[in-house]
Amino acid sequence: MNFDLSDEQRLLQETLRGFLANECGPPHLRAVFEGEGHDPALWKGMVELGLAGLHLPERFGGAGLSQVDLAIAAESLGHGGAPGPFLGHALAGLAIELAGSEAQRERWLPRLATGEALATVALGEPGNVWQPEEWTLAAGERLTGTKTNVPHAAIADLLVVGLAGGRLGLVERGAQGMAVAPIEGVDRVRRIDAVVFQNTPCEGLPGGEAASGRVRDAGLVLLAADAWGAGTRLVEMAVDYAKTREQFGVTIGHFQALKHQLASMALDLEPARALVWYAAYAQDHLPEEAPRSAALAKAHLGDRAMQVARDVVEAHGGIGFTWECDVQIWFKRCMFDRAFLGAPAVHRERAARLAGW
Amino acid sequence: MDLSYGEEYESFRSEVCAFLEAQWPPRGAAAQLPKKEAAARFRELATERGYLRRSIPRRWGGSEQPADALKARILQEEFGRAHAPIDVRGIGTMMLVPTLLEKGEEWQKERFVPATVRGEITWCQGYSEPGSGSDLASLRTRADLVGDEWVINGQKIWTTQAHEADYMFCLARTEPDAAKHAGISYLLIPMKQPGIEVRPLRQMTGGSDFNQVFLTDARTPKEWIVGRRGEGWQVSRATLKHERNSIGAAAQTNALFAGLVHLAKTTKRGAGTAIEDPTIRDRLVALEGYVRSHEYSSFVQLTRDSKREDPGILQLMTKLNSTNIGNEVAKLSLEILGDDGLLDPTVQDEILHLPNANRSWITHYMYSLGIAIAGGSANVQRNVIAERGLGLPRDAWAQRSSK
After folding, report:
1. pLDDT in tens, B1-20
2. Complex ipTM more than 0.85, yes or no
3. What is the nearest CA distance from B375 to chain A, expressed in angstroms?
4. Could you tell me the pTM of the whole model?
5. Which of A28, B57, B65, B112 has the most beta carbons within 10 angstroms of its beta carbon?
6. How far is the C-alpha of A115 from the C-alpha of A111, rounded, in Å?
7. Do B290 and A68 touch (CB under 8 A)?
């Protein structure tokens, strides 16, 4: 039994955290947050670290790593508040790897692994629709309908689209009849768009029906991991603040009411990291537990990180409520992680059903 | 990451299973022995094989095995599956024995360790006093050296097993003029003597797990002191290090949650069962998030223990996490029980038609509070996490009083 980060995984975490501290410190992150919500140079740096193809097979130029490694990357990105298209790109690559024909894999995966092409996933539909069994767009050579909450659709070269019957299809950038409209999303470093298809050419992924649940589950794990990283960063910010802010002549970290709040925040998140790791591990090694553990991790971390984010605003006092305070950047990241692919209650009900309750 | 045990450990597991298959339940002549003797005999056999008393030196009745968290877990799993006797559990084996091994004199080890690990003698812990709970070091029970004996006067409280124990390990003030922590010594005291009176405390659950112990000119030999005079506080801290058992805590929490799910599946609600109620389902899964986090974190701690690495802040959280979950299970169980929550768990009258299982849930509803208080209340645990885990300043009052 070995249920902890390996030396390689620690190195991955340190590399990513170090990279983000250097290349995307608070002033830079703030600029992206206030600006376009995407920084091509920063994404290029992440691609150079191997992030674009971490989990893709080595024969397609990926690093061939596991879902646990991918989750550790997501934790680190959440911790750093990293802007950019990692989530959609990683899931799109996974979808093609799992569901694509050999020709589709050969065509796309090497370009995705090198970052030459940027991909994303169009899974959401209007009306809180996220799950494969709920998708409504009729599959066929031509696609008509609307997908929503698509991460970074405006800059993507390729969309993996969720279709009726839990199928998956590919739509390329600039395809005929496709219109992308930005949604003003709450998380300003992971932008989302609505995509409207009107008789748009679409190429089916032959294994889509079998793979779409797994892609969703992998997404749930990555969101849970990202939320863990973001929440943990927020606790660190609150602890640092408690050690420096003075009132009544002492740092406020002396006051037991605040100490206890901070301890409770840490208690909410620190053990929950293993829940995320387990769900990630299950994706590769425990197929019968994979869907439920992913649902459980997403529901738990979605709620816990969000509650921690609220408490951290409060722990900062008035300053925490301002636009200038960086707490809001991670607070909004937690909101994204909580809502994307379905709110916690949705996944709790799924987990109950998956347990046969 | 790898959740399997690997070949070496699986072969250890097979070896353990073969031993259990042959030895428990007892066969042949051993099967005729009274239960207690059969268990004692089995424990000696298992110790010879290196399965029990693993941290105890051979000369004091143990098997002296190198620390191996994975083997310990396998033994726990397999002995549990076979319902075989495990190490004698009690405050004596959990706290006193490790303390004696680390701080005791040779004669003290020889006299007390083998008999304690074999279950031949039992202990109670004399720490808390009516005026000294979280602020334990303020304790006032006094021990004065008169000739060759310590003469002890004072009162201890929350003393589990005091009515049955042969001895007490006790913190008493021997140096009244020294500073708070430096005035305390760690004494071993025979319980069966005229100077000691034990009175049970009745809990809100109706049961009596704890006692008050009144010491009035109680006596113990001069050399029954562990460590030197005034070192009792440090000696008692050495004991606390040994309390950690993350795996055990997670196993208990899992069993509790499994019981709750069973309750929800079997309790009638309208035309169906409680588990079909959307509110109950939602709360069950929300709670399971904490339960599994706790369980999987125990795997992380197990990994770090087996590599002799620092388990980090997680280890400071085990108790509070367990008790929080226990409280949440209790609250949700009452929600599921519905009208049965009106009934008194202390009454065993058949007329109530209250199934035993439900009565035990009502007891747990209250008992979970006791567990959250015992051994350091939740607020004390939060202090520990904040101070030792997050590096926040020590509590101002504690800082002042330790000077």
Report:
1. 998 888 999 999 999 999 99
2. yes
3. 18
4. 0.93
5. B112
6. 6
7. no
